[in-house]
Structures are given as C-alpha cells and as structure tokens.
# Entry
Amino acid sequence: MADPFLYNTGERSQYGCLGHEIQIEHINAYICRPSFFTDKAVIVIHDIFGWLFPDIRYIVDLIAGHGYITICPDFFKGTDPWKTTDHWADFADWMKHHDPMKVDKEAGVVLKYLKEQCGVGFSWGGMAVHHLMLKNPQLAAGVSLYGIIRDSEERYNLLNPTFFIFGEKDHTISFDQITLLDEKLKQYCKVAYKIKVYPGQVHGFAQLKPEDMKPDDKPYIEEARKDMIEWIKMFI
# Structure
C-alpha cells in the first residue's frame, strides 16, 4: 500500500500548544478557547496519527483563534495511533480496529459537553466527519478534508451542510472519485455542500504548521484554511 502522506511526518518543528488537555467522561481531549466568551464550538477529528500529533493541535489552536471553542477528542480511546515507524502493509488490519464510521458514541459525549457545534476532520477524521454528516443532525455543519466514505449507498444523503476539501495530487483519492461525489451530491443531496480541489496539493496538505510548509504550497494551504473558516462562520 502506498504511503498516504508524501510529507515526512516524522520530521516536524516543535510546537508549544496554546490549549490544554481535559477529560470528558471516558474521553481525553485537547481543547483551546478564544480570549472571549462564546458558545460556538468546533470539534476537530484527528487523522491516523491521533490527538497528540502536533499538526492537529496547531489546527485546534488556529480555529480557536477565529473565535471558537475548539476541541479534539481522542477518538482512538487510548489505543495506539498509526506511527511513522509502522509498516503500510499492516495498515488495512490497523484500520479494522480504528473504523472512522464508529465514532458516534464518542461524538455524542462531546456534543453533550458543547452547544453550537461544527465538525472538522482530516484524512481518517475526514471520513468520520462525512459519516457524522450522514448520521448526526445535531452538528450544524462539517468540513471533510481529504477523507470520504466510499462504500456506502447512503454516502450522498447529507443531513448537514458539508465542505469537502481535496488536494489535486492526493494519491489516496482519485479525481474520478471526486467527480462521482460531485455528480451524486447534485443528484441526491438536499442541503448545502461544496467541493474544492487545491492545485498541486498532496494528502495531508492543509494541516501543516507554517514552518513546515514548502513555499510553493503555502498559498494553497492558507487558502484552504481561509475557506474552511469561512464555511464554519456561515453556519455557527
């Protein structure tokens, strides 16, 4: 199996988090709050590298800086995330024990903790957000970044407005799959949705910290983040 990340995830700059860790019932989570009071919240669903990965905590802090309580729960419930030293031949077996379509219980616990909510997910988390947009009407809207459900006939019946973000050179999601998603959503979807493909970008592009970006990629990464925040602000 090809590596889903073309960037070397083992080499990242240090990051000093702005938020802190909390526990909600049985779930550990990383949370960051804006400097003023608000009920508006965003749930960030991490990728295969888990809730402790610095890139995902940077995204939590970034969204919080736009005025939202932002929280990233440990959807792996204390089990090991995928590690950069793991072998991709074992990835399919690992996914059997980390199913992004089985996040409903943990999402429900976090939703009780928050009030107005939007879901944002990256890769594995993107699939989880797509799933939640089909199953959970409590969420006001969702952003799925380079992660979609591919094997369910119900995957086009969105309950909540959803923004799908893709990289043009993401070798895990083909252009044909994106085109099919767009065609079927036009046919079946009854809520607002948006699909956008960012030129030249690979899987995982939108969650890099500034110091880890390549100069040619930076404008597209910043554009994707701006688009993500604008979508959230439309609904909460």
Observations:
- The CA atoms of residues 156 and 185 lie 5 Å apart.
- The chain has a mean pLDDT of 92.
- The domain at 21-235 is CATH 3.40.50.1820 (Rossmann fold).
- The longest strand covers residues 116-122.
